[in-house]
Amino acid sequence: MSKIVGAGLFAFTIFIRAEPGFDEWIAILEVYEYYIGVYILIGAGALVMIFSFLGCCSALMEHSSALYLFIGTQVFLFVLTVIGSAILLDYSTMNSSIQPLIRHTMLRFIVTSEHPHSSAALKLIQESIGCCGADGPNDYMVMRQPLPLECRDTVTGNAFFNGCVNELTWFLEDKSIWAAVMAMILAAVHVITMPCDFFTQQKFGAVKGGWCDTKHLVKVAKAPAKTNRR
């Protein structure tokens, strides 16, 4: 079960990182912190697949030390997936650490909108997302900048009501929530499998111990009886 969920998490987070055009948005907004949680979950998914295979091998060989090591890796992967999910959500949801970063970038673009790079970035963001300013059209008025055409709806001519901070956060949240859900499912699987793995190890230990005791008894039974010499 953990191998399947781990493979799914690995594939989905790789897709987020390698999605065409998505890296361009991250570069424009300068929010590379978003990738921290993605990288952690990519590593967690890869390690789950590797350690699950090694755990199956140790169970087949009935190697008690390897099973104890596998239980330890389950604890480590549980902590890793929880940390990765927390960091990913902290940089991709509403009222999270990502919003001040996006707001800072958008306001800087508005202040320097006379420069070609800032003007092109604002046009791309506001036209593609359908937003205006950092928190709304008032940002241009406060900074005494003209309201650009891309801030207006092409049909009605009215300025977009929502700011780009919220719109971009919702855009990131839609991608991150699925990765976080898969990571939490994987963490729950670790919680369920850890007691099972421990029970399996104890069972192997009991069987091995019983076999050793029986072997010792057979040796004692076959040993020649000592006779008292007078």
TrEMBL record:
Q: Which Pfam families match?
A: Tetraspanin (PF00335)
Q: What is its main location?
A: membrane
One cellular-component annotation, GO: plasma membrane
Where located?
Answer: Membrane
Residue stretches spanning the membrane: 34-54, 66-89, 177-199
- Origin superkingdom: Eukaryota
Membrane-related topology note: Multi-pass membrane protein
Q: Which cysteines are joined by disulfide bonds?
A: C131-C164, C132-C151
Recite the UniProt keywords alphabetically: Disulfide bond, Membrane, Transmembrane, Transmembrane helix
The UniProt entry's sequence similarity note says: Belongs to the tetraspanin (TM4SF) family.
Q: What is this protein called?
A: Tetraspanin
